[in-house]
Sequence to fold (313 residues):
Amino acid sequence: MSILVLMDGWNPAPWAAALQSVLPDEQIVIYPDVADPDAVEYALVWAPESGVLNRFPNLKALFSLGAGVDHLLRDNSLPEVAIARIVDPDLTGRMSEWVVAQVLLHHRQQLRYLEFQKKSLWRDLEQPAAAEVCVGVMGLGELGRDAADILHRLGFALRGWSRTARTVPHVSCFNGADGLDEFLSGTDILVCLLPLTTDTEALIDNTVFDRLRSDGPLGGPVFINAGRGRIQVEADLVAALRGKVLIGASLDVFEVEPLPQDSPLWSLDNVIITPHAAAVSSPKALSHLIARQVQAHRAGQPLAHLVDRARGY
Ligand code: NDP
Ligand code: OXD
Fold:
């Protein structure tokens, strides 16, 4: 019996090594070097090619090596086995660091100070208090709730938006299409931590940017996205940034990754770009979670953090 490591665009070796160190008695195999496909029971996967998982007829469960599972569910022929995703303090902490860093960067007007610095200008800007600024978090899941909690402790006002009704301490919560308008109208810094699903694809377009609070203390709204790139309509985003509908953006995810060389986003001076690196999956940290999942499943216990395929996350 074996555990398969199969990933596209990531180096599988550190994953196999980390897993082997916490599961020394298991046989770990790395795709495509699989001598006995019938022996594969579990697979750790990132962005597998469509259809490839059907080569393993005795698969019992798939472990997505990311929190998002759009990289799996895009495969219409995915085997009908359980899918568990990453929910882990290491990944959550990394994402909260990125989100909080970006919120503070815009809130503290660091891009403008950098411009002054380049010109050797000693000039201070009017600085609103955090409490005057409302951060609106789209997606009140594992990642959205943790970021909101830290932002609350920094003093920001908070709104949140989810699919179903949620109660989150210190966050004014809205949900569904009916709650979107009110959520957006009071938001100064919009943070997207949504999964990519058929409902969220292309959700964030000019109609969303136009509804954000335009007369807030920062002089205009800011957009931050670490959810998925295909949730944002990039042509609308570029137009909103050029037209000062948005005063700035921080983007970790893009419609096409790597972000094409000719994307206008590269040259906008009010945009911060990171290469889908907000919260990397760490083999060392996450192998413990995978090991616990395999051991629980072998012992007949249910897997944690199961994905609902119909819902898409
Ligand atoms: P969760 O599944 O825990 O939370 C998802 C949240 O989004 C839930 O609050 C859910 O609502 C909400 N949601 C889903 N669909 C809709 C919808 N149609 N309308 C409104 N709200 C919706 O996910 P995580 O917090 O763990 O992760 C979120 C995403 O972050 C991942 O799917 C992935 O795409 C991205 N990610 C990006 C990384 C990076 O490095 N850039 C790293 C890790 C994750 P409800 O509460 O009602 O279910
Ligand atoms: C994830 C990611 O979903 O890295 O975890 O994007």
Observations:
- The radius of gyration is 21 Å.
